[in-house]
Predict the 3D structure of the following.
Amino acid sequence: MKLIEAIVKPFKLDEVKDALLEIGIQGMTVTEVKGFGRQKGHKETYRGQEYTIEFVPKVKIEVAVNDSQVQRVLETITRAAKTGSIGDGKIFVRDLSAAVRIRTGETGESAL
Amino acid sequence: MVRRLRFVTMILPILTSFAMTLGAAGVWAQETAAPPVPAAQEIITAPAPPQAPPKIDTGDTAWLLISTALVLAMTAPGLALFYGGMVRSKNALGTIMQSFIILCLISLQWVLWGYSLAFGPDKGHLIGGLEWLGLNGVGLEPNADYGATVPHQAFMIFQMMFAVITPALITGAFAERMKFSSFLVFTLLWATLIYDPLAHWVWAVGGWVRNFGALDFAGGTVVHISSGASALACAIVLRPRLGYGKEHMAPHNLPMTVLGASLLWFGWFGFNAGSAVASGALATSAFVVTNTATASAALSWMVLEWMYRGKPTVLGAASGAVAGLVAITPASGFVGPMPSIVIGLGAGVFCYLAVLWKSKCGYDDALDVVGIHGIGGIWGALATGLFASKVINPAGADGLFLGNPAQLGIQALAVLVSVVFAFVGTFVILKLVDGVTGLRVREDEERMGLDLSQHEERAYS
């Protein structure tokens, strides 16, 4: 099992969600986050006082999947979240050692 | 820096030549203006010769009472929202509360002793006597000195709203860091020891500044220069907010600030046009120039910022409007529409430059009371000495552009008196309060914000 974390542009969230539903992904967790990579933030000016806002708002999508699904999910997110301009985001994959479905007590892949 | 200087040297000659042109237009207006305005009830008029007992005019009284409510709306909600939106969200309630509670506090101070000190029978040209304590003798009959056609109490409560808004303006200088209890003590002392005497000097029969002929129609010196100079003392004595210049201190809700600025504009018609203490020609003239100067100042601030920084900001337009309102205040009963455009344009430019200059100086006048009310007020007082015309108000005087350069000197003297008195007096009061109760909240309380630390509430929960 793997946990896939995709940091994407906020307005791309719906497209990514729809694309993942289409390939059979049944659930995900979404968090509003801030951060920066190569895309730097922006400048704000209030009565001449300038502030540089480094942290850009993004959305983090977390999906837990079987090992066999990983490649497809990565491709799907990449396709759906891409605009081609700087700041499109990143995807991280990490190993998932356990999972439990709270309602039934199922564990492992059947809990996903 | 170099770029800015170059810009200033570029803009100033343009502005000056424009001022000259419109100054000439003021002269031209003199030839074509309507017949002189009857202004027997205007505040700066000399005491009327004894005549038949004064009679209440219902139109004048209605306008004065409505104006009173308009000026009240300038403090709360106007100023409360204007300032409330400019602070960080953790201080929104604390900032709004300062304006709101000043309204309550000075309402009582004024009826108990403030009005008597400011407008009571003159003592040595310096202060009103205690004869009118608790409004003793301030009844419903007109007082010929201050409004021959309105009940004396109507004039009293109109003036109360000026006494309310002035300390509320100062709160912008010590925003986000003053202890609530000390703020209450400071406000009460400031109103009694600074505002009441200054109002007496400038407006009351027998006041020494009034006697040397300074023109201040609606409170440029008493309200704006005094609050601006006091704000400078506050910013210096209280020292900067924690993290000033390093942390992000951007306004938390600019729509709130714009709403507040718009309400200030709305209420200011009561402030300026109401200061005619009569409903008629002079009130109308003051109304028109107030609106014209405000619009000009908002535009000039916006354009200047656009040229200098690259973007026309919303906060800039709102700040410019307030600067214009401040600058036209002393002149509003003495100048015509064309000079009011120059006064507005100048206000936008001078106040914007003052606000920029502040950020180089290191003192933390958090919401720019010095830059807007101090500088705008000084410009307005001096501009009154440039553009005032007896055609607009026979009870006033002509200014420099109408051949009376002495008036400019008189105005400058009134400015100097207000600045020195307000700055020094405020400095002493602050040191006194600091010694007894301390002025600032504790460091952990400041980090937590005034809302939680002073009031145990949150604006947004």
